[in-house]
Amino acid sequence: MVKESQETPLDEIDRRLLRALQMDGRLSNVELARTAFLSPPATHARLRRLEREGYIREYVAVVDRAQTGFDLLCFIHVSLQMHQLEQVENFRRVIREMPEVLECHHITGEYDYLLKAALRNRKDLERFLVEKLTPIPGVERIHTSLALTEVKATMALPLE
Hints:
This protein is an alpha+beta fold. It folds into two domains: 41 residues, Orthogonal Bundle (Arc Repressor Mutant, subunit A), CATH 1.10.10; 75 residues, Lrp/AsnC effector binding domain/regulation of amino acid metabolism (RAM) domain (Alpha-Beta Plaits), CATH 3.30.70. Helix content is 36%, strand content 19%. The protein has five helices and four strands; from the N terminus they run αααβαββαβ. A four-stranded antiparallel β-sheet has the order 2-3-1-4. Helix 1 crosses helix 2.
C-alpha cells in the first residue's frame, strides 16, 4: 500500500488493534472490535486507515521453515567490488528475484549487504552460492554463517 503524505499518529486503540493482529492475523473484525472496545464498523474503518497509511503492509501466513524442508537458515554477508549505481541496482534486482532470499539489508561496516536465506541442505547451499550468488556481476566477497538454533524469531513490533 502507498503511504499518504500525512499519516495519522497511532493512538492507544490503533496500537491495541496492531498488537492483536500481530499475535493473530486471522482475527475477525468482530473479535478485533472486542479487543479495541469499538463497534465492528468503527474497527473496520480504523483497519482500512491503518492499511491505507502503510502501518499494515500485508497479511500473510507464517509457514514453518523446517516443517516444509528448509533445514538451513543462512546469514550471508556480501561485498560488492564497486558501488556504482548501475551495479548496485542490478544486484538488488537479482536478489529480489531469488526465492531463497527471505531478507536483504544494505548495511554498514565491512560488508555491503546481509542476506537471510532459507535452504534445504548443504547441497542446496552450495548450488545457491556457486550458481546463483557468486555469478552476480560485481560480487566481490561472500561470507556465510549457518544458524544452529533459532532462539527467537518474531515479526511483532513492541507497540507500547
